[in-house]
Amino acid sequence: MRRLSVQLPGEVRDRSYPILIGPGLLDDGATLRNWVSGREVFILTNATVAPLYLARVEAAFSDCRLGTLVLPDGESHKHLGTLDRIIGALLEQRHSRSTTLLALGGGVIGDMTGFAAACYQRGVDFIQVPTTLLAQVDSSIGGKTAVNHALGKNMIGAFHQPRGVLIDTDVLATLPQRELAAGLAEVIKYGCIRDLQFFAWLESNMPALLARDPDALAQAILRSCETKAEVVALDERESGLRAILNFGHTFGHAIETHTGYQSWLHGEAVAVGMVIAARLSAALGMLSAADADRIEALVRAAGLPTAPPSDLGAAAFLDHMAVDKKVVDGRLRLIVLDGLGSAVVRGDIEQGVIVATLLAAGAPHE
Amino acid sequence: MRRLSVQLPGEVRDRSYPILIGPGLLDDGATLRNWVSGREVFILTNATVAPLYLARVEAAFSDCRLGTLVLPDGESHKHLGTLDRIIGALLEQRHSRSTTLLALGGGVIGDMTGFAAACYQRGVDFIQVPTTLLAQVDSSIGGKTAVNHALGKNMIGAFHQPRGVLIDTDVLATLPQRELAAGLAEVIKYGCIRDLQFFAWLESNMPALLARDPDALAQAILRSCETKAEVVALDERESGLRAILNFGHTFGHAIETHTGYQSWLHGEAVAVGMVIAARLSAALGMLSAADADRIEALVRAAGLPTAPPSDLGAAAFLDHMAVDKKVVDGRLRLIVLDGLGSAVVRGDIEQGVIVATLLAAGAPHE
Questions:
Q1: Taking residues B60-86, what's their average pLDDT?
Q2: pLDDT surpasses 80 at B11
Q3: Inter-chain touch A329–B83, beta carbons under 8 Å
Q4: Which CATH architecture has domain B177-360?
Q5: A91–B contact, CB cutoff 8 A
Q6: Which residue does chain B place closest to A321, by CA atoms?
Q7: Closest Cα in chain A, distance from residue B81 (Å)
Q8: pTM above 0.90?
Q9: Where along chain B do the CATH 1.20.1090.10 domains lie?
Q10: DSSP alpha helices (H): ranges in chain B?
């Protein structure tokens, strides 16, 4: 087992928390119980994960009053209506301000559980037990919680840090291949934005990762979590550096909004977004065409899409991007690479260059 | 004009903010503009307040991109559905993370605007311009924001402090008498929990307050805001002291939940709650019967109700109270007085004593 820490100061108490990574950790009941300060626990999971892993997690809380809510699976349920349902279940089961919520699932469950914890009675504790690769390497760490609005992804949310993140690498054995690939998109992202050596390691080890070699997966998760924890500790509220974690995401969110959070997985949309952002970086003369090719090749090697949906025109793309959270005072800010393994935020990119990049990526004009 | 300050430290920046109190402040555009850091402003108000005061507030932001949303008036609209509508309006009008929301209205507008500001893109700035006495002396100060759930009042919310609170005492001239009285309930509360001298002053000046004597109202608002700011600065997140501000509120919330947030104003429910809490304090031997009588007499003198709705039985009362945020690990915590002008939190009160007090207050047995 490996142990990392997200280092965060606090006004009232230190908000630093551990990330544990290893096989079989779902059965480490003592650790889970230790992260609960009261005697009330409420587990949120979904219909896919519950039959596989819920009972093992519940076993940790035999001395607690335990509630469970099994939600339908999928990003299309990540909205205020589901939040209302979660809060209703907490109230019906009389959970108090000293309860702890536990997210057992992927990014959707983690984001909703975290936001419910941020809001319920103005804030209760929560724990992340991510069961998808994407949640393990990205969304479960860093305290970004949210639900979607019909007009924009993650537009209703809060910064609310978990008390701990428990990553059982064994659960990836049951993950559908498409979900595994979606998680690899975020893994590739860390290489692109901050770690050239890791990018090269991924190029060599992609076949092992896709074959779910436990050592390769553990290494990829560890390195991803290290990078994420480091960036979050430096800039929790995304006033600067943390924005680089959104590499590929502004383009990706446009795809997700366009497709109604239904047909594309988040990681798939981010994969295409990274390819476009790499091409944009090349168009700006900041990244070599060869390095942009390397990114596209690695994305393709992971079994991920590299082109946007054929019915998403460049104009609509820009329109969706204009509501992104990276817009500040009317200016779109994009994450681009100034070399492979190094990302910067740019707020001065000509719209014409973006449009040309989108068209070159295959987006129709209208 | 009087200027107070809520003193709050911050991890990233100092979060202290000013409260300005005086006549005609709605026309102090320079102050309002100065509290906006970007160039985007979104005003939330309701159909009652908008025709009276909206144009004067809008005038402050002639150099900003300005959006406005006029909501229906009333506590029954303080729910997630309205939050969804607010977020939708912000997204449609392309407000970015650097926008500032402004609450122009009473407690409902303030609570919803504050929560929308806490959630929109994971947090934007907001300003409070309270137009009811209740909002001026209580809900606009201290950063408690929330919406109601069908199963409980203020159950979905956040601590999110405004950048400033502008209290124009002239606006009380247009306030319906019933709303004025509801605000006086919270004013009386400050006397009960922390300020015997102020309580006595209120006993002498209640006729002047009800006649809207400007000097008397200004004095009552100032003293109330001073007390609120002091308590919030000492315990922002309500880990201890701040709970005394909920004197009368647990009983009051039960009345509001029972009546569906429709027929009773918050201040009216709190008024009855304070009378019950005072009687409970007397039953516990902590407060003299004479002082409980003084509280009931002052509540009555303000034109406020002193008995709960006749169809709310003691058992249902307890049931509603059991979902209150003051419940910790299954134990109901209530604010009681250990003498007039001094409040304490008690978590060990026998249910039999509470039931007897409710029955004596006029609640039917079932």
A1: 96
A2: no
A3: no
A4: Up-down Bundle (1.20)
A5: yes
A6: B94
A7: 8
A8: yes
A9: 177-360
A10: 29-34, 50-58, 80-92, 107-119, 133-134, 177-194, 196-210, 214-234, 249-258, 266-283, 289-301, 314-321, 351-360
